[in-house]
Design goal:
This protein is α/β, with parallel strands linked by helices. It is built from eight helices and twelve strands. It has a five-stranded parallel β-sheet, sandwiched between helices. The structure holds calcium ion. The site of calcium ion (CA) has 6 residues, from loops.
Length: 226
């Protein structure tokens, strides 16, 4: 197995060095960028396997950096922040972060989250075609087709749809969806699932197709043909 290369975008040298030392000891190759532009530049020059991104950065902030990274690639992003506001977490995830850690956090916790993201990425690189009705999802290309028509999905829309397609005709609770798509227990405070289900439905029903992702009141969602 090749060494995973992690980019840390963090302006506080003490934290960046602490993380770098820890990750190098765990066998990762690590690059540190101390502001957002340097981080974006590094991503253009080198292929990384994962980005650890601090929310509070001088110049362009972490949310902006996440948005630009996500627009350019589907590299896993773990966001760090000193803020504990749910609104920030939601914003970070909407901008394309895959996971989120509130400072101060235990290094072991970060390590666990990194491994989840890297593993998920490896699994998603093994090729498989999932089918449901007229939908077919290529898990290697992360590509959706409805009949012959190719449909563009964002990273999170894809993750959500893949989850449904792996569990057809089965009710998925909000807790399960949070856990599988966003990687941890998000609590009940956010409407992020509703937002993403709405995005997905818009795309899946763009040509007046029948609804396949259905709401099960008080329980969650289910993918089924009516
Ligand atoms: Ca910072």
């Amino acid at each position: 197995m090749t060494t995973s290369h992690i980019l840390i975008i963090e302006d506080e040298a003490e934290i960046a060095n602490y993380l770098r030392r820890g990750l190098v000891l765990e066998g990762f190759q690590v690059t540190v960028a101390n502001h957002g532009y340097a981080g974006l530049q590094a991503v253009r020059e080198t292929t990384f396997d994962l980005v650890i991104l601090d929310l509070m950065l001088p110049g362009i902030d972490g949310l902006e950096v996440a948005g630009r990274l996500r627009a350019a690639s589907d590299i896993p992003i773990i966001m760090l922040t000193a803020r504990d506001a749910v609104a920030d977490r939601v914003l970070g995830l909407e901008r394309g972060a895959d996971d989120y850690l509130v400072k101060p956090f235990a290094f072991e916790e970060l390590l666990a989250r990194i491994r989840v993201q890297l593993r998920r990425r490896q699994t998603s690189q093994t090729s498989e075609i999932l089918r449901f009705g007229r939908l077919s999802l290529d898990t290697a290309a992360r590509e959706l087709r409805i009949g012959e028509r190719r449909v563009e999905l964002t990273a999170k829309e894809y993750d959500l749809l893949e989850l449904f397609m792996r569990h057809p005709n089965q009710v998925l609770t909000r807790e399960v969806i949070y856990d599988r798509v966003w990687g941890y227990d998000f609590g009940g405070e956010s409407n992020i699932i509703e937002v993403y289900v709405r995005y997905l439905r818009q795309k899946l029903e763009a040509n007046s197709e029948a609804r396949v992702i259905q709401t099960v009141r008080g329980a969650g969602y289910i993918m089924r043909d009516e």
